[in-house]
Amino acid sequence: MRGCLRGERVKLTVLFADGAAPESASFWLVGHAARGARRVAVFRHQRPADVLNREAAEARAEARQCQEEKARLLAERTVPGGLMGAAWLERTGAVQSEGILDDVKPQAGNALETTGARSYSPPGSVAVRLKLLNPGSEPWSAAGAVLKDSTGAEVELSAWQEAAIPPGALGFVVVGADTPEEQFGCSCILKLWEAQGSRTITLGNVTFSKVKQAPTSE
């Protein structure tokens, strides 16, 4: 490639005029001190558009599955389960909790139906466990969540679940964060979202029990 410095990289994009798929191709040309070419010929094998669309959909599905698997492995590494998890929450004293399903106010257009809700307030932190029904045609997995208090202040929450909630099935999601307990002494708004796509869940009037002083004898 003449006219370029040695090792210089130039990205080129070729547009094909016949209208077949793929419609374009991009590649890099790298400068060389002794070799150069005045012309570069580009050939491509034509492929039906439906084949390319199917491969793109498969790639997106594989990427989504990898993200969900990564989230599950990270959760298993950082969060104890079963009795171990309960014992861990009890490490600083009795855990205050309350069922809030009858009080929460789901937003119209929520992607999933809330069939169970319970809030937890160990000293110095808050958490909410939701039981959700997925009425959609695709699995749903929480990628993140945020809790907003009555003043508009927001706290980002970590989200954990064993697996994505399959279509037409029930599943549990737990969200929580370490935060000053007095910040959420009033009703809050909780919002969860998925990794890819626009399906969200928003719940109003989320409350937490007042935290009692943790015992120091244990």
Task: Give a short synopsis of this structure.
This protein is an alpha+beta fold and 218 residues long. It has two helices and eleven strands; from the N terminus they run E-E-H-H-E-E-E-E-E-E-E-E-E.
Structure write-up:
The protein has 218 residues and is α+β, with helices and mostly antiparallel strands. It folds into two domains: 1-47, no CATH class; 78-206, Immunoglobulin-like, CATH 2.60.40. 17% of the residues lie in helices and 34% in strands. It has helices at 49-78, 82-89; strands at residues 9-15, 24-30, 96-99, 105-106, 113-121, 125-133, 142-148, 154-160, 170-178, 188-194, 200-206. The longest helix is centred in the N-terminal third of the chain and has 30 residues, at 49-78. It is elongated, with a radius of gyration of 26 Å.
What labels would you give this structure?
218 residues, alpha+beta, Immunoglobulin-like, 2 domains, two-stranded antiparallel sheet, 11 strands, elongated, disordered C terminus
